[in-house]
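INFO  loader      accepted 1 record
INFO  loader      residues=320
INFO  predictor   begin
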Amino acid sequence: MTTRSFSLNKAPLMLLAGNSNRPLAEGIAAYLGVSLGECEVGRFPDGEVRVKIHSDVRGADVFVIQSTCTPVNDHLMELLIMCDALRRASALRVTAVVPYFGYSRQDRKDEGRVPITAKLVANLLQAAGVDRVVTLDLHAAQIQGFFDIPVDHLYASRVFTRYIRKLELPELVVASPDAGGMKMAWGYTKRLDAYLAVVEKRRTSGEDVEVGFVIGDVKDKNVVIVDDIISTGGSVAKAAQLLKDKGARKVFVMATHPVFCGRAVEKLRDAPISELIVTDTIPVTAPIERLRVLSVAELLGEAVHRIHTHKSVSTLFQSV
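INFO  predictor   done
INFO  writer      dumping tokens
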């Protein structure tokens, strides 16, 4: 793989956005005090993605903001084609800001004859000319190692922690909806001075799960379930019901990426959840009365600023 050398000290900053999450891109631009570059991302009559960069990007430090949310394949192709166009237009550096990194669930071969899609997408991004990736709450942290370019893996816990502190919930317990999320939940307990609980879960199909028991004391406690993705909603809905059955006072749910596919909205509306707290990595239009959307524009904007000005990004990996 050919490595390009950079002289970025005087390179102008430029932000471009695809069609996946324009409001978040505008929020990042507003935080940085710049305007989004002019870029046309449309379709040919047969449905193929058509990209035209109208702004002059020669010698620029370009950040492309695009989540790979529904429709996933369309938005992924938009990102790849935009980055290819930028490379061919002589952009000095191309950074893909991917708030929600799709195709991340298959990050290893856990059975025969299955792909590793997270590695495939990493290869595609590099082949398209991406020099750096900024993303948020990867489904599995080891996906960073699938890239041969720098990856800045940020955490929404900075945003969530501030919000939960403002609620001033007494007798707080942080719960993981399954054993795989224990590490994330444990990190929140230290930052929020809370107790830990874990819900035992078995997945019976791609959409259905069974919950068994709770490890930890939740009786008369305020419980916050933490997760990275809410997809079909089955895990958190059943975990919330089980926690209420075990005597929890109130149940809150925090998840970074509100994918909300299938019957997720229906399940979440019917679940005993006092507040469902998500971020805007994916545009949210779900009709859920108790839904609270927190913006990650400031977090991503600060990362872009630090990368462009050659400052350390490591402080953003930590929670406040």
